[in-house]
Amino acid sequence: MQQCFVIPVYNHPHHIEALVTHLDQFQMLIILVNDGSDAACTELLHDIATKHPQVDLVEHSYNQGKGQAVMTGLRHAHKLGLSHALQLDSDGQHDWQDVAKFLQISQQNPEAMVIGQPIFDASVPKKRLYGRYATHIWVWINSLSLEIKDSMCGFRVYPLAKTIQVLDSAKFQPRMGFDSEILVRLKWANVPFINVPTKVIYPEDGISHFNVWRDNLGMSQAHVRLFGGMLLRLPKLLAQKVKG
């Protein structure tokens, strides 16, 4: 098994260098995907790539969305011959002390998609928390399963061979809807899931690029497409449930 890190970055300068420094201890490739950040953040990423030999900086010339940045990173890792990619967000929300646990679980279960199951503290905005539940319901309906406990957590390990097959099979929502859509489609492909409880915070200096109208519309469109896809696959999905 050959693992790496994939970190999408769009104007998140506050935590990224500390995150890379923390990940250096694992002596694994760190793929940073600069998704069209501004000049200051781009300069910081170039400086980080210069100072940290483990960093492979991949860049979009303009902002294409978090989902597209993740897809770019996953495809880049696969082309390099890596087998698994641990995705982390760059905004400081995730508990970096759990990285070793995620990697170990993936090593023990190489066929599985390992996903974070957030444990929120009081810093979580209530509107964001309630919005997650609406997405969870759609994901459970579209996957015909309760196995995906939280589809929006960006702390996860992808088995790359299967993931690339799924990415090649459909057109994906390039922004915030991607995190949920890829999990539903991996579930359709009968990939097993392992949910790992992990603390998630909303830092005081955190920067959110969630656009209420654009991203909610994009996620709604993704869920509608997935619902249609679920209906087309209904006999196969029911057969999988019976076998399971």
Automatic annotation (TrEMBL):
GO MF entries: transferase activity
GO-annotated biological processes: protein N-linked glycosylation
Domain Glycosyltransferase 2-like: 5-123
InterPro entries: Glyco_trans_2-like (IPR001173), Nucleotide-diphossugar_trans (IPR029044)
Keyword terms: Transferase
Pfam families, per database record: Glycos_transf_2
PANTHER family found in the cross-reference section: DOLICHYL-PHOSPHATE BETA-GLUCOSYLTRANSFERASE (PTHR10859:SF91), GLYCOSYL TRANSFERASE (PTHR10859)
Protein name: N-glycosyltransferase
